[in-house]
Design goal:
By secondary structure, the chain is α+β, with helices and mostly antiparallel strands. The protein is about 20% helix and about 35% strand. It has one domain: 3-Layer(aba) Sandwich (Aminopeptidase), CATH 3.40.630. It contains three helices and eight strands; from the N terminus they run E-H-E-E-E-H-E-H-E-E-E. The radius of gyration is 15 Å and the shape is globular.
Length: about 160
């Protein structure tokens, strides 16, 4: 067993990795999202030996094309390259879904880069149609999954 730990972090703590891993061409303030400061938003970080190596965010936001209440948007799930493939992203995603479930979430959704949709599919997310062309991040799928309570130890 390794010593990855998943902890709640502040939005500003996520910014450097969000920029480095997902939006390297953007100015630091350009990687912030309006939902980051929502009172119910949750930002989580994965730590290895005290260093932040992964991030993820979730906040309430209606899903495009849906009328269902209780929708939560998953954003910016990212793990440093040397730590990928070890279950860290799964732990981050599970922690987000747990938070949404605790706040009466019904569905979680995300816009997911084409290269990363397989990760989300492994955790029950379904694609909604063809890829959407995002001018900043390239083609992305709109994906969604039902929110359910999860019970797990958060040390990997």
């Amino acid at each position: 067993m390794s010593d990855y730990e998943i902890e709640v972090i502040e939005p500003a703590e996520a910014r450097p990795l969000r920029r480095a891993l997902l939006h390297p061409e953007s100015a630091p303030e350009a990687v912030d999202h309006p939902g980051d400061t929502h009172p119910a938003a949750r930002h989580v970080g994965a730590f290895k030996d005290g260093l932040l190596i992964g991030i993820a965010t979730i906040h309430p936001q209606p899903m495009p094309g849906a009328t269902r209440t209780g929708a939560w948007r998953v954003r910016d799930v990212a793990v440093e390259h040397g730590h990928r493939g070890r279950g860290v992203g799964a732990l981050l995603l599970e922690r987000l879904l747990e938070h949404a479930a605790e706040h009466e979430g019904v569905v979680a959704w995300a816009t997911v880069r084409v290269a990363a949709f397989g990760f989300f599919e492994r955790y029950g997310f379904l694609r909604s149609g063809a890829p959407i062309d995002d001018p900043d991040d390239g083609p992305q799928y709109l994906m969604h999954a039902g929110v359910r309570p999860l019970h797990r130890s958060w040390n990997l």
